[in-house]
Amino acid sequence: MTTLVGEQLRSPLAESLVKILTNVFIWASNVATFMHRRTESPTVTVTVPGPTLGVVGGGQLGRMLAEAAAPLGVDIVVLDPTPDCPASAVADQIVGDFTDPAAMAELAARSDALTFEIELADPDLLDELAAEEGIEVHPSPDALRTIEDKLVQKRTFGEADIPIPPFHRVDDAADLRAALDEFGSVMLKARTGGYDGRGNVPVTDPEDAEDAIDAVGGPAMAEAFVDFERELSVIGVRGDGQIRTFPVGENVHEEEILRETIVPARTTDEVTEEADRVAREVLSHLPGRGVFGIELFETAAGDVLVNEVAPRPHNSGHWTIEGAVCSQFEQHVRAVLGWPLGSTDRRAPTVSANILGTVDESQPARLAGLEAPLSESGVSLHWYGKDEVRPLRKMGHLTAIGTDDEAVEELLDRARTLRDGLYFD
Questions:
Q1: Whole-model pTM?
Q2: Please, what is the Cα angle at 355 between 354 and 356, to 5 degrees?
Q3: Is residue 5 predicted with pLDDT exceeding 70?
Q4: pLDDT band, very low/low/confident/very high, at 45 (cuts 50, 70, 90)
Q5: What's the CA gap between 205 and 230, in Å, rounded?
Q6: 343-355 b/e with 16+ CB inside 10 Å = b?
Q7: How many Å apart are CA 76 and CA 88, to the nearest integer?
Q8: CB-count exposure of residue 65 (10 Å: 0-12, 13-18, 19+)
Q9: Torsion of CA 171, 175, 177, 179, to 10 degrees
Q10: C-alpha distance across the termini of the chain, in Å
């Protein structure tokens, strides 16, 4: 038998098969090498001074984008309807509505590429500008279409077998009662426009259905309440042939508003790995380049479900400014321009704590009590430059950097104490 096999291997047919297989292996190896090189080092020519990036939206995210872009030699122009918006302190501003064709055309004319920092950007108008002006828009307007409508977002992820909570479309009170019959209790969410708890109404009693529909004020979806252990998030980046993720963060909310983000998250390695896997799966279904904020639930059973996704830098990624090698804002600039991405490695344990409007009614913004955080080693202040403080409005944040031998609970307590010592006078 051994001799026969040897003879078969020496036959002309066998030798031809060996040559073919060898060539196939070499070809596959070359393709793998090429793809690896493309994934790690996209071919792009980078020079400084760099291009001008146009941003739809000039709030605190636009402000921090401009702060991150400046060292790269990239100029920022923002479009925002509020005169002297937060970003205007560090970027040029065009005053205009997000859906104003003339204002958007001016933004495109002054820019080499376009992005957005708010979901109120009009994807159809962005598509028109891309076609008429020949300008790149990232993330893709199609990604914005998918994400800006929470029902479309959930359907897209569900069809892709990405884990999500059960949900129902809600057009009227009868639809909401049907969802309550099935799920027991739900979070009623406005399909568009809601943020920081706005547009979200918890509902447990069918008799409250009419009032809940009125409170949302438009098309909605009902999502089953999730018995979660903690809320997590992953800041993901899609570059030119690259996908990278920052370490998983743990988010603490009160009244539907983010208060603190803790990195590393206080969870198991298994949950962390699953959160990263799910985030990468989400990124694979969203076209275009840029940063995406992916909010997640960790259930009591250790499962990971997608809560919501934002096609832009996210509040839960502010810790990356001091806590990561390359911040989410610099990553977004790099990704949108097609430049190589930076490292997403964490420098140290980090906690970011939001500074919210601790007032009962609107008043001019004047923050006091800053001596303690400014005197504390490893603590950084970020003020968003808003002229008016309103109840629970996001006015800034503190970031506290720890050491590997400091318990993350101690770092969280330190950040909270310093933040809670601030006040508006």
A1: 0.88
A2: 105
A3: no
A4: confident
A5: 25
A6: ebebebbbbbbbb
A7: 10
A8: buried
A9: -110
A10: 94
